[in-house]
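<instruction>
Derive structure tokens from the sequence
<data>
Labelled lines for chain and fold:
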Amino acid sequence: MNATVMRPWDAFLTEADRAVLARGRFAQRMGFGAKPAIVVIDAQRYMVGERGIRDERYPSSCGEIGWAAVDRIAAILDAGRAAGVPIFLTRFALDASGDDIGVYGRKRAFMKERDDWCIDGTEGAELLPEVGPKRGDIVFVKKKPSGFHGTPLLGYLIERNVDTVIVLGGATSNCVRATVFDAASYNYRAIVPADAVFDRLPVSHAISLFDMDRQFADVTDAASVIAELQNNSQRG
């Protein structure tokens, strides 16, 4: 992300905060490696509802903010597929019994009677058609915030010699953030386009992006990611 452009978190930082960041030399750029992959986190119906409709049907919907990001996610995926980049799509889906919700059920009401939440087999748990899957994409279900936890993602990345993970989707402060932190823990370069991830609360979105950019990822924008993928395709 261009430093001259107002970043989502800039409004929250004081001059003292900026001095701390400068003194500690935080937020260095790691850049893209040689072998990127794209991981789309939970781009599902329950996360954004219906396009252009403002209603209360979808209790977890990010609404228009989510749809704006979905359009950019679709553009990044088009560029990634054209470049032959591996694409992984996660779905967060719970059994209707609630037996697999775990400790999350102590923080969030379990809405088993709804078909517009993340109950497996319902409309709410479906991937958005704007995202996929398309031929060659790999889809898997996760039960926890991180796209790595209890899933085959790490094995797929190792087998493909991936060194850079481009993380898209939602929500920024929950599953995107958890996936980025795990990616960093496994020593993958993490790239997060701020306009291709989304959250229900602007403050959560902004501060989570700040935390990721400060220490664990390069926060950039969709246009920069698309340009890098196009360059990757030309190099390939």
